[in-house]
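pasting for ref
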Amino acid sequence: MSAKQTAPNNAPKGRDKDRVVIFDTTLRDGEQAPGASMNLEEKIKIALLLEEMGVDVIEAGFPIASVGDFEAVQEVASLVKNSSVCGLARCSRNDIDRAWEALKGAARPRIHTFMATSPLHMKFKLQMEPEQVHAAVIENVTHARNLCDDVEWSSEDGSRSDHDFLCRMVESAIKAGASTINIPDTVGYAVPEEYAALIRMVMNRVPNIDKATISVHCHNDLGLAVANSLAALGAGARQVECTINGLGERAGNASLEEIVMALKTRADAMPYKTGVDSEFITRASRLVSAITGFVVQPNKAIVGANAFAHESGIHQDGMLKHAGTYEIMTPASVGLNRSTLVMGKHSGRHAFKVKLKELGFEIGDNALNDAFRRFKALADRKKEVFDEDLVALVDDEIQHGHERLKFVSLQVIAGSKGPQSAELEMEIDGKPQVAKTTGNGPVDATFNAIKELVPHTAKLRLYQVNAVTEGTDAQAEVTVRLEEAGKTVNGQGADPDTLVASARAYLHALNKLLTKREKTAPAALRA
């Protein structure tokens, strides 16, 4: 391979050299976060919103991993028209055939196949010699390209791979038909300067690199996923693989909203553009948080509750004089619009619907009716209903709308004298059931009632309560994590009554666990 003095233009013919392709893997890599599994309906909601916001590529799943994953990729592929729909596959004919079977109905299908290239992974995980890995990549990328015009190949653990071998693999993958080459930092080990140097090295040494787009997929184990991704763009990469809210296994992935807004805000330093409409960011963040039960931390960049909050007197004084003193972007630029509609117990259904639309929610009539009913009950109990209350309420309604196990009512007797007891009414597959139990405290009694009606062996691994707003009448948002037979799920519930929110969260997690029981997935190797 010949060295070159300058990196070639990495954009394939017909593509703007300064255009960055946004590849969203929330539905695939994001779902690998313990407890973040999504059902088919939830995946479709997220995929359609990603398409609406202008995401270029939607990685919808790993079709061979399970029947559920296959069906999700197939359904997303049939519905999404403007974005490319991608399915992941190992460098295996069976994986690739299964991915194509799910993708072939897509308007713009992409097969994404991967194989590890680091000495550590090849020796201990693949148990293959480098020459065997090289031959497998050529064979399987060729097979994928014979099925699909758009093929991406990833060198798993690329950031810890031998440079000579990595360049050889990239050159061969491109020759075999890959038009996108992904060099991932699979374990989040790289630092920005080092990672940028890796991308420059590949671009300078691989003679046919101008025939492919270089992609980067960074994990956040050292908190550097976004920084590494941006450094790679500066070095010539033109696709970034990322997720909403940075969702993903271990410490997560590069955050889509941070990548998009960094490029938009600092165009002076990074003169690249994306096709993403940033005003959809808050809506997408809330939807993913509601569906997965993963609460966005208050100080999370771009989408956290405190991202545009100013408490310091000096900051507040500056903001009053000119917003630019302490805000480098506007709330409206990420879809966080402050509404002029103040909601209370006298507000009507139409005003409620308009308010939800302002907050980024458009829900069906049945869900709207249920949400409005809960809003009126909330307004009777709270002096002031905040936007955050409505977001929590609607998120909760979205989560629990189509579940086998549904909360109906809860009556608890608690206090220092004891015994603490709970009378729970719920629906199981549409049939009402009632249980009366005691426990070591009101929460324990409530969860015991659920266990009596739905016997299971799941262990409670997390019970967390957050106040949605300030004040003693604030809604409680509860997160519950359950584990059973190695499967972990998170559930979330919201209500002014902490115990009711707890029951809702536990049932939400239990519903997810029931769904997981129905799925069988092989121990697939995932990039």
